[in-house]
Amino acid sequence: MERIKTSGDGAFEYVRYRYYDGQQIPVMMLASGAGAWSDGNAYQSKAIAAQMQDFKFGDESKTQDDD
Fold it and tell me: By CB distance 3.0 to 4.6 Å, which of 1, 11, 18, 37 could disulfide with 64?
């Protein structure tokens, strides 16, 4: 994966474990930009991603539109 970085910008990925359907699942949190704005989440399966596509966890960073 190629990344282009400029001053103050960056890409951030980290994994958090969340509860889904009574089980803990890994969720990759994706963020970018000088404000580390949330770009979305990645899930292990398309089925979970489809169900969670509009869900926002309470501790996620703001999106660039929210800032």
Answer: 37
